[in-house]
Amino acid sequence: MRHARQFAAFAFAFLACAGASAAVVATNTSYGVIDGTLDTRTLTVAEHGWITDLNILVEFSKCDDPPIGPNGSACRGPGDPFEEEIAFTLTGPDGRSVDLVLPYETYTGATRGAGRVSVNFDDEAPDAVGPRIASGTFRPEGSLGLFDRTDMFGSWTLSLQDFSPGDPLEFFSASLDISFTTGPAPVPEPATLAMLGLGLLGMRAARRR
Ligand SMILES: [Ca+2]
Ligand SMILES: [Ca+2]
Ligand SMILES: [Ca+2]
Known about the structure:
This protein has one domain (21-182): Jelly Rolls. Helices cover 17% and strands 36% of the residues. It contains two helices and ten strands, in the order αββββββββββα. The protein has helices spanning 2-17, 190-208, and strands at residues 19-28, 32-34, 38-45, 50-62, 86-91, 97-101, 117-121, 136-138, 154-162, 169-182. The strands form two sheets. Strands 1, 2, 4, 7, 8 and 10 form a six-stranded mixed beta sheet that branches. Helix 1 (2-17) packs across helix 2 (190-208). One calcium ion binds at residues 53, 123-124, 144-145.
């Protein structure tokens, strides 16, 4: 155990040596009405950094017709907004994808739309996203930790889908909020750290014999 602990201490010391930052590294504010179709928004990160935590803030509305428009806030239509018929997915520069909102699963039917909301998708949030559309910080359907230890540099794609015509999804903005370190090499995954720790213990046991 002592060796494993020493190794962990070494790993943390290594982390402390590298520069560490947290910042909104990319934003897209291209308003759009998405209805019965798939649309995407690109978030371009211009600097390199090893991701230690990634959150994404998405500002959108899902209202009964008509659309609320680029400056709208409350829903104009009084009817069922069909909140369930949308899907959000974030794809990183290296092609890996994480589902934020799943269709007909994350959100369920509502009697009246919530209007324009800001949802911060964050693995560390206490509450999971859904079942009603609401502003706040929520855990996404998939784990954004999938992006940890990868380079944030490059083009990220937020896919926004609305499954049937009528009651559009409206997109206002998205921001990537990334904590990252700078340095020559990515930090090993916890599983790798644990295996290295076990390996050290094994070597020690073998030396004893
Ligand atoms: Ca995280
Ligand atoms: Ca987080
Ligand atoms: Ca629709």
